[in-house]
Amino acid sequence: MSNRGLLTVISGFSGCGKGTVVGKMVDSYDYSLSISATTRKPRSGDVDGVHYFFISKEEFEDRIGNNGFLEWAEYVGNYYGTPKDYVDRMLSEGKNVILEIEMQGGLKVKEKCPEAVLVFMVPPSADELKSRLVNRGTEDINTINRRLCRASEEIDFIDDYDYIVVNENADICAQDIHRIICNEHKKVANNSEFINKIKQDFKNIK
Amino acid sequence: MSNRGLLTVISGFSGCGKGTVVGKMVDSYDYSLSISATTRKPRSGDVDGVHYFFISKEEFEDRIGNNGFLEWAEYVGNYYGTPKDYVDRMLSEGKNVILEIEMQGGLKVKEKCPEAVLVFMVPPSADELKSRLVNRGTEDINTINRRLCRASEEIDFIDDYDYIVVNENADICAQDIHRIICNEHKKVANNSEFINKIKQDFKNIK
């Protein structure tokens, strides 16, 4: 079947456990993470090409003009974007690439890369999400309520996503997403080379 | 998640092992078979409602007029069709239903039932298919060549199918299709009820 990798976009509410699940997909199923380009200055410990590609504002804007990003956004005065060439290279090397990103970004990726698989992760319930955020203890109740408010707005985009997965257990959720991607590799649309070979075989055998 | 079953259409060349794989899906994963309606007379051993629904020509034509079939065709003077109400009832009872059918029929089903999952099964190679047909020993070489010729024409429809699976081993192939269906149940489009509930939960928690 096809040797090209697939791009998986994973979105979900803050606190639903995306980071843990993505980590398990990298460790257990050999997924590669997409690396963002940014114009923000490196902080201590930041490694160029590992945590981010650090580039200048001019280069970033040039690349925007050359359609060089699958998506990009400005945040607190800095640009952040997903470099198209980097993701393309990984996919053609047969790697399955994960992009953890918010929903608006995910939908922009789907426009430029229609074969990308958009997965939305939800907690078992809204109450469960609230108690996870509270128990995390890193934010005050006003911030938590803002996050929940944002979640309730963001959820309207879900209809444009491909799959919904419930994260009750990170190991099972990582396996669920991995199986989705294994099956996407069996899509007719992702196997044109293989199908052309079969078509040729059958024309030749007559 | 959703409790409604999914309709799986399985097509593939004569001799590629569809029957064996479908049997394993019924036995190992609890899939239900769709039952065709036909106007042909019952033969010895045929049980109405098990092998076929035997109905009169008049009733069949009435049902065609009432949009009562997911697909139908005439073959050697008799009608054969997939009854819409029967399949609908099984799906709403939460059963995953399998319809083993040729490709033109499969595409008609997709028109009436867009959420149906169309799976095309191929043998490991055209040579392998030829030797399976020869080894079966039930047909002379001319019939086999006609079948291969038909296969080479039919394969052009593959681009309208959803998934392609290679049948090298019937147990693995049945498991592959079962996993495809499990994942289809996670499609956003197949979970509108569940998603509306989440949306409501999040509106309420604010």
How would you describe the overall organization of this protein?
2 copies of one chain form a homodimer. Chain A is α/β, with parallel strands linked by helices and 206 residues long. The first copy, chain A, has 2 domains: 1-31 and 96-193, Rossmann fold (3-Layer(aba) Sandwich), CATH 3.40.50.300; 35-95, 2-Layer Sandwich (Guanylate Kinase phosphate binding domain), CATH 3.30.63.10. Chain A has helices at 18-29, 57-65, 84-92, 103-112, 126-136, 141-154, 170-184, 192-205; strands at residues 7-12, 32-33, 37-38, 53-54, 69-75, 78-83, 97-100, 117-122, 163-166. The longest helix of chain A has 15 residues, at 170-184. Chain A is globular.
Question: Which terms would index this structure?
Answer:
206 residues, homodimer, 9 strands, Guanylate Kinase phosphate binding domain, 4-stranded mixed sheet, Rossmann fold, alpha/beta
**Strand runs of chain A, count:** 9
Just give the CATH class of the largest domain in chain A. Alpha Beta
The total of helices of chain A stands at: 8
Q: In the CATH scheme, what's the topology name of the largest domain in chain A? A: Rossmann fold
- How many domain units of chain A? 2
Overall form of chain A: globular
Percent helix range of chain A: 40-55%
Concise synopsis of the structure shown:
Two copies of one chain form a homodimer. By secondary structure, chain A is of the alpha/beta class. Chain A has eight helices and nine strands.
Ordered list of secondary-structure elements with their pairings:
The structure is a homodimer of 206-residue chains.
Chain A: E1 7-12, H1 18-29, E2 32-33, E3 37-38, E4 53-54, H2 57-65, E5 69-75, E6 78-83, H3 84-92, E7 97-100, H4 103-112, E8 117-122, H5 126-136, H6 141-154, E9 163-166, H7 170-184, H8 192-205
Parallel strand pairs in A: 1-7, 1-8, 2-7, 3-4, 8-9
Antiparallel strand pairs in A: 3-6, 5-6
Helix pairs in contact in A: 1-7, 5-6
